[in-house]
Amino acid sequence: MTQPTTFVPRSPARWPAAVPTALGAGLTHRGRVRSANEDAILTDPSGRLWAVADGMGGHEGGALASDLVIDTLAAIRDEDDPAEALDAALTEANARVRAAAAERGAGMMGATVVAVLIDQGIAHVAWAGDSRAYLLRGTRLRMLTHDHTVVQDLVDRGQLAAEAREHHPEAHVITRAVGAAPELEIDHAAVPLVPGDRLMLCSDGLPRCVYESVIEALLALAETATVATEILIRRALEEGAPDNVSVIVVDLTGG
């Protein structure tokens, strides 16, 4: 299969070649409308592995699906090859979610996911669905993932303007998720990191109610990863947060 490629500008020569150290934080909230939180997040004190999963299938089934995804990712070993490990873990999670759905007699149960494994200064990103990863370098925010949604397909075909995708009536309709099909198609990107970079992972509950320009500004202003997650969750709640919302922010410092 053909995999999309994420292009990130090369680091200027004046930046040091040191491998950066990752330190981050994460928060998840059920939002203002939903009665339960179907999101799950993975934060790593060692700075290596981070993930957001957004469950579907009712509050019990969705929460179970996202938990299974995060539990499977958490079992990745430090010595494993990053891209292969992410692919294997998400493939296993797909099987586990489908088995759990069959055992429960659930017609539909699944989760979108975005995961980042940082190894030797490279962010290995894997995703399925519309949970996203972003890179803030300086004051500019770039999305590293590409949504698997009906609306994004319209944008890709030139039938919808990119700025209209977040508020389209079918913005929530995804075309890929863990547990949705017998075989899971996973997209990957490998992004070189430099000290000063800031990564953000989120469920779709954040960009659906907070403009990317606002996210960019808030990320650039926040002094720490912890503060950034708190500010972004608070802003989503101020905007009504009709869905669960989860945010992970990871700062890269001098190695």
Strand order of the largest sheet: 1-10-9-6-7
H/E series: EEEHHEEEEHEEHHE
Multimeric organization: single chain
Gyration radius over CA: 17 Å
The residue-averaged pLDDT reads: 90
Shape: globular
Question: How many strands, what sense, and barrel or not for the largest sheet?
Answer: 5 strands, antiparallel
CATH homologous superfamily descriptor = PPM-type phosphatase domain
Helix content: 25-40%
- Overall tally of structural domains: 1
Derived from helix and strand composition plus strand pairing, the structural class reads alpha+beta
Distance between the termini: 36 Å
How many individual β-strands? 10
Task: Report the CATH topology name.
Answer: Phosphatase 2c, domain 1
Number of helical segments with 4 or more residues: 5
The proportion of strand residues reads: 25-35%
CATH top level assignment: Alpha Beta
Overview of this protein structure:
There is one protein chain. The protein has one domain (21-253): PPM-type phosphatase domain (Phosphatase 2c, domain 1), CATH 3.60.40.10. With 255 residues, it is of the alpha+beta class. It has helices at 58-74, 82-104, 150-156, 212-221, 225-238, and strands at residues 21-29, 39-42, 49-56, 110-119, 122-128, 132-137, 140-143, 187-192, 198-202, 245-253. Residues 1-16 have low confidence and may be disordered. Helix 1 packs antiparallel against helix 2 (82-104).
